[in-house]
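Run log, item B.
One chain of 496 residues. Sequence copied directly from the ordering sheet:
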Amino acid sequence: MNIFHTTILSVTASLALIATGCQSTSNSAKSDTLRMNMNDYTSGTVSYRGKEIAYRAYEGIVYVANPVDTDYQTINIYVPEEYFKGDSVNGYTAQTAPIFFPNTVGGYMPGKAGTLKAAFGDGTSASVVALANGLVIASPGARGRTNQDSNGKFTGKAPACIVDLKAAVRYLRHNKDLLPGDTEKIISNGTSAGGALSALLAASGNSKDYEPYLKAIGAANERDDIFAASVYCPITNLDNANEAYEWQFEGVNDYQKMDISMLDYHVKRKLIKGSLSDEEIAFSHELASRFPSYLKTQGLTTEELSSLIMGYVEKSLNDKIASLEKEGTAESAKKKAEILARPYIKNGSDGKLSIDRASFFAYIGRQKLPGAFDSLNADTGENSLFGDENTDFKHFTDYTLKNSKNDAPMADSKIVKIMNAMNYLKPSEKSDVAKFWRIRHGTSDKDTAFAIPVLLSRSVENDAKASVDFYMPWDIPHSGDYDLDELFSWINEIAR
């Protein structure tokens, strides 16, 4: 590198520090392996709704000092170019811009650091919309249940995925004097298992339970609590998910089981139709009958929970019908007629539409067999999540272990605990819970029981005393990032 080029880089770095209101690093900080190099970036533009958005991309940054897998323990950061000029975007400045923190985890598989491409198919990228709204994007990668080292040992079993996300949050705080964006307004986003991790990150801020794992990978000595969480269809509360699923679908004996060859965003899915055997029907009944005992610990009866769930579903239905009527087109009228023809729709006494619960869940249909998450054969993705470096699959519920059809061992109870966001919402856990939550679970989602997000939302509000925006959008299947205008309207509302 010639002297002229070196001088230009030095000037550029100084301008960046001035624009972000930062101070020069000390000599000790310069030797810190977790300090961000603000000169190592590429420039780019992306188009959104006819407008070109300029940004700087800091990609492939390893966010821990002792990485286990540098293919996944990296973070990509995208910053609106205006912040390096001292300008504002959408009312935000380099000092006040929230940091959008989307993960790419699906099926508890490994997820690489996110880019500006859409996470789901060919849809609009949430990160591009975030840029358009003036947010700084920091999208971390995380290890998952299938990661192995050169010796064949598993390196991404629980709790690696949540530990990595916490380490990435700590990296951002470690560089808050260099990086544009407000590290006190980190907002996570995730779908499915990624939604579960978004919730867990928001619930377990600064919990001591994760400290040994964070130290082992050389995470920065910083806080890991976040400001807010966007949570789509979370596959969480796994130690109670079997019972919740059968409580919802008991009596629905026909199924369309999803055969998934890759449990990431790029999945290959094949539906396999069948009917439950007599043995499976009996197992379903046994699991469903165990669910009320868990609900009792949440201060609820099954009748009360059912009323809560159906209240959300009926509101979604009536909102959808009102929206279609407001559109007033031939297409919307056709869609309204199709919905009203469904066998579970009833006219309520108050002039609103109501839903017959049993008919509704029969119409949605069962997707998973009894033992949906911790199976008797210990062969699910969640069984794989709770393995260890030498064991691919483990049980994680006592009842399924007791009735296991193989010799799969039991997972460590401490690890099962630290993978469940519900365990960190009560004040007794002394974690720093995010102040704001947005939880979405579609009414056509059959990957987990409706009880799971409803109970999560209820606990966020009642136990953690945090603000929660919960809704069950009509006819939406297991998916995320489908309502980006509404998502970023919520973010702008809470972040200003």
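Observations after the first pass:
- The first strand starts at residue 42 and ends at 48.
- Residues 1-30 have pLDDT under 50 and may be disordered.
Flagged for discussion on Thursday.
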